[in-house]
Design brief:
With about 325 residues, the protein is mainly alpha-helical. It has five helices and no strands. The protein has one domain. One of its GO terms (cellular component) is axoneme.
Length: about 325
């Protein structure tokens, strides 16, 4: 849980940040797992609600057929992605290559086809019987209700005649009365069926609205879950980025250290070369000063030796002396 996570002040060491990354990833898995449990439960609830709607649609379809009206029923169903392992389910329509069948499989397929054909012919016979029964019963609400109410609505043969006896007039009036009662009762039953149908539609809509409310709540929860996951993923990204930058910085420092060490070696070598050069320079300076002193001494001696010679160009003589 979050109690295992380090505080921001504790994320100074590399090992601590690596541990924090794994803890955050584990927290992300837990959040997703918890939400997925709710999603799977909602899918189960949807299946239960679909069963309820289908059950009510059975009665609603019966009423529609009795009322002889056209109405499209609401038939909710599961989406393909709501089935467990739907990613691994391959529909026959997705296979474009003809399936290879062995001899045994072909024989079994032909046998199944023959059995299906036999069942179809048998069902056709049953359908003919059902159609005959439907024709006999009339297949209408009025005929069924007539039988249920036990009302004899057979119209007298002389009903439309002009000259009627008193007894015939009495029978016609009785027929009109029974017909009126029948029509009133039929209208009551029709209204009762319409009321029942309206009630069933309302119950179906209530089921759908209740499930939509659950779905809407789960959708809002998903936004919160996504926000929480994004927050954890951002922390993971920042921690990994800091680790990468730390590695890059360590590599850069290593390269700079190598360059510094090389510069120190070059400095030491240059220092040794300068010291050696200074020694050579000092030795050369000593030799130079010695030669210079000797030259000055020779110059002085030459001047003393030829000081008494009149008319002698001493500078020319000195140059010749230095060129010797």
């Amino acid at each position: 849980g979050e109690s295992l996570l380090y505080s921001h002040m504790e994320l100074t060491k590399r090992e601590t940040r690596i541990n924090q990354v794994e803890l955050l990833r584990d927290q992300i898995r837990k959040v997703r797992s918890t939400f997925n449990v709710e999603v799977r439960q909602l899918v189960k609830d949807k299946g239960a609600e679909i069963d309820k709607v289908d059950e009510k649609n059975v009665r609603l379809q019966e009423i529609i057929e009795e009322l002889k009206v056209q109405e499209d029923l609401i038939k909710p169903a599961h989406a393909p992605c709501e089935h467990e392992g739907w990613q691994l389910i391959v529909d026959d329509s997705e296979i474009k290559v003809e399936k290879y069948l062995s001899a045994a499989e072909r024989a079994q397929a032909e046998k199944a086809k023959a059995e299906e054909e036999a069942r179809r012919k048998a069902n056709e016979g049953d359908d003919q019987i059902l159609r005959a029964l439907s024709d006999m019963m009339g297949g209408t609400l009025e005929v069924k209700k007539d039988a249920e109410m036990g009302v004899n609505l057979e119209k007298p043969d002389f009903y439309d005649a002009e000259d009627l006896t008193d007894e015939q007039q009495k029978q016609c009036r009785e027929y009109d009365r029974r017909l009126q009662v029948y029509e009133e009762e039929l209208e009551k039953q029709r209204k009762a069926l319409e009321t029942e149908a309206k009630k069933i539609r309302g119950e179906i809509q209530a089921i759908l609205d209740a499930f939509d409310s659950k779905l809407s709540s789960l959708a809002e929860e998903k936004l919160s879950v996504d926000a929480e996951i994004y927050q954890y993923e951002l922390q993971v990204t920042l921690l990994l980025d800091s680790l990468v930058k730390e590695e890059d910085l360590a590599l850069h420092i290593g390269r700079l250290q190598k360059r510094t060490d090389a510069a120190h070696l070059d400095l030491q070598s240059a220092t040794a070369s300068v010291a050696s050069f200074r020694e050579e320079l000092d030795a050369f300076r000593e030799v130079y000063e010695t030669i210079l002193n000797e030259d000055k001494a020779y110059d002085k001696a030459l001047r003393r030796e030829f000081a008494d010679e009149a008319g002698l160009n001493f500078d020319t003589l000195s140059k010749l002396w230095r060129k010797r």
